[in-house]
Amino acid sequence: MSEEPTWVLNIKRGILSAFQNSMEDLDRDVNVTETDVVGKCSTEYKVEDTYRRTRTIHKSKDLLTCTHREYYRIAMHSVKYNVHSKVQSLPLMKGYHNCVQTLDTSSNILTNSECSEENIFRPFSNGKSGAMTEQMQKLTFRQKSSSNHRQTERFSHRSDLLFDHKEKMHSDQFSTQEILSVFEDLCDKMSEDIRPELPKLLNNLIDLMKSADYATLRRIYSDISRQGFCRKNSDRTKRYFRDSLPMLGNVASVKMFQYLTSINQFEDEDMVIFLAVLSVTQNPSKEMIQAVTPLLDNKNISHNVMLSVSSMAASYCNKNPKCDEDFEIDALIQKYMSFVGNCDKAANPHVIQALRSLGNIGYSSKAERTLSQCVTTTSFPMEVRVSAIDAFRRIPCDARRSALMEVFVNTEEDSELRINAYLGLMKCPSRMLLIQIHEMLERENSNQVGSFIWSHLKNLKQTSDPHLQHIRSFLESEEIAKQF
């Protein structure tokens, strides 16, 4: 259920993973890619033994082959770079996951599942003599029972078996006292000048504040704002608190930011900095996005705020490909679409930034009709039409892109616009698209457009970029190679 804590759901994921069997045929060995609590891994199934009504199956995984396994607590923002390799996890650890499953073939019931996982820290290890962890898990079928009472549980969404690394929040008095203690140290040691130990104290402060919930942060800010707290430099102490908030990267920090903004404790410049830092948060939640969406209601909203909020949503969607099904993301997209309106820049000066924000988010197939109108209406300014084309770059390929093709094949359109439409189409390449591009090139009368496309396709045919190999394979196929 959605109300259950993350740690409870992770335990359930671990139990269900022990049950999981991805074999289509229980009589044959098979290698598959399986998703469970340890990650998305290459998995080998072997039928070990069949005796009367019992079948034993051995499941094994090399954890180095697993993706979606690690979690990084760093301030720097990064983008995954996937390559075809046997090593997909951080090679500092060497691990194996093995399960032995016993099935009753007469009743199709899993009667026993024994799983073990072994991890070795590779630096400074020699065989199994280094730092090592070992886990054992055993599930045994006891009995089958039925219930006359059916309880219907409501849930807002489904999730997979991947481990959820969401950090736990605390609100206990102990963490509050620890944080206040750090503020007292900052007050004592930084009263007259900036000392060398400041970075260490701030890092410690941020680490402690990350585990605090909103109520705790409110209480702490109230305490450090008291007249008797840090009389030497009260303003600087509160400044340390405000500057630490964007580094927390959680819902509590966003709510605290909203509260401080409502009581005029944040200047406009500080607000931009806060959102800029928050936009590169590694793991934003939909609750964080919901919390910052009301900022877009401000009539004098800054362009930087619009782009920062969309970047945060893009980070969330990169880790949750079905984010368009979330109410919070849908509400944000609708908000940006209201800025776009009918693409009239004169009526709404925020049109360009709203289009760029939609492009940042992607995953917004519902915006396809509005974007297509912006692209094809010739009376709109060039920058509006180019921004609308660019907004297609992250929208799923199952969305219609006929508007881009319409602009691309129209030789009366501006060359810059046609080139942008071509690049937008190439975000979702197919054999049919490449054939259409070839036919267009044969009658192309613009040297600028024709030269750009030929050079672009030539570079794609020679690229070693792993993300572009599917386009290269299209260009090297016998059918397409004859035409280019």
From TrEMBL:
Task: Determine the domain of life of the protein's source.
Answer: Eukaryota
From the UniProt record, which GO molecular function terms apply? lipid transporter activity
Q: What are the entry keywords?
A: Disulfide bond, Glycoprotein, Signal, Storage protein
**SUPFAM superfamilies, per database record:** Lipovitellin-phosvitin complex, beta-sheet shell regions (SSF56968), Lipovitellin-phosvitin complex, superhelical domain (SSF48431)
What Gene3D superfamilies does the record point to? Lipovitellin, beta-sheet shell regions, chain A, Vitellinogen, superhelical
SMART domains referenced in this protein's UniProt entry, alphabetically: LPD_N
Name of the protein this chain belongs to: Vitellogenin domain-containing protein
Q: Which organism is it from?
A: Octopus bimaculoides
